[in-house]
Specification:
Number of strands: 9
Bound molecules: zinc ion
CATH architecture: Alpha-Beta Barrel
Shape: globular
Order of helices and strands: HEHHEHEHEHEHEHEHEHHEHH
Distance between the termini: 44 Å
Strand content: 5-15%
CATH class: Alpha Beta
Largest sheet: 6 strands, parallel
Radius of gyration: 18 Å
């Protein structure tokens, strides 16, 4: 059923800097015959649909799938190369942003601000020199691990109970120094606590939900959410059905996770990280990135004030970007 946005919601959405803290579109652009600038008949995200959805800032993750574990650096460079080619091909519609000023400039000129991140620290191959060179290429965030163990620490599916390695701690320090986002989604709980202890900057969980509503290892416990709030960080509620819970999760469950995270950590620690193009199934009602305005409409319906809605749909991520990126 189509959801009709009222004027207030449409106006608020249009004025807000809407931020999506995670998508896996770079993988499908490289592997399938899709172009960022062309409206695709399938998949979840492209520039025309981002504009329809009023998305101002899109994180693009270069994801190191386990199948590339023997040549992860080559994989990340190929993903970044293709990202840069796509950006160069669409100069009127998208801008590769490296800090908050770039984002504001993109917004003023009606371009989507594309923030490049890497998902899976194994591509560093144990070298902070590689990290610095990725930064030079314009990477401004690192999801330290995927689900498995790497040189930085353990992901949520690693068998041993362990936090960050010595190298992982060095990477945290270097990300702080460079001015790039530290992303704790996928990280083991022990690793999570290590990052919160050692990072001198607010951190993000780009695409994780609430464990209290859906008991999945990828989700954050109330204790973790409270600690993230204290750190000044932000979590991106994600649209992946497995992390939402329920029979046929829909936009309603996404809103329930937002409500819970706000109740536990406060309105300053909650944002959104769709995982578009990173999952086969999505929450009903959020099948692609053109549907973002419906979230704004429903947040207003749930009684959030305008300022609170603005924070949740992007303002909180923007705050952390402003604090961390140089
Ligand atoms: Zn992920």
């Amino acid at each position: 059923m189509a959801y009709l946005l009222n004027n207030r919601a449409a106006e608020l959405h249009r004025q807000s800097v809407v931020v999506d803290a995670h998508c896996d579109t770079l993988t499908v652009l490289l592997e399938q015959n899709r172009r960022l600038g062309q409206l695709a008949g399938h998949g979840h995200l492209d520039l025309p649909r981002l504009k329809m959805g009023g998305v101002k800032v899109q994180f693009f993750a270069a994801f190191i799938s386990p199948e590339f574990k023997y040549a992860p650096l080559k994989r990340v460079l190929e993903l970044i190369d293709n990202f840069l080619l796509e950006i160069a091909e669409n100069p009127k519609d998208v801008h590769h942003v490296k800090n908050l000023d770039d984002i504001y400039q993109a917004c003023h000129t009606g371009k989507v601000a594309a923030l490049l991140t890497v998902e899976g620290g194994e591509c560093l191959e144990g070298s902070t020199g590689v990290l610095r060179q990725l930064y030079t290429l314009g990477v401004r965030g690192l999801t330290l691990t995927w689900n498995n163990r790497n040189e930085l620490g353990n992901g949520v599916k690693a068998r041993e109970i362990n936090g960050l390695t010595t190298f992982g701690l060095t990477v945290v320090e270097e990300l702080n120094r460079l001015g790039a986002l530290i992303d704790v989604s996928h990280l083991s709980e022990e690793g999570y606590w290590d990052v919160l202890q050692y990072s001198r900057q607010p951190v993000i969980a780009s695409h994780s939900n609430c464990k209290a509503l859906c008991n999945h290892p990828r989700n954050l416990s109330d204790e973790q959410i409270r600690a993230l709030a204290e750190n000044g960080g932000v979590m991106g509620i994600t649209f992946v059905p497995d992390f939402l819970g329920g029979e046929k999760p829909s936009l309603k469950e996404v809103l329930n996770h937002i409500d819970h995270a706000v109740a536990v950590g406060g309105v300053d620690c909650v944002g959104l990280g769709s995982d578009f193009d990173g999952t086969e199934k999505l929450a009903l009602g959020l099948e692609d990135c053109s549907l973002w305005p419906t979230i704004t409409g429903h947040l207003i319906d749930r009684g959030y004030r305008d300022g609170e809605v603005e924070k949740i749909i992007g303002g909180n991520f923007l705050r952390v970007i402003g604090q961390v990126l140089k």
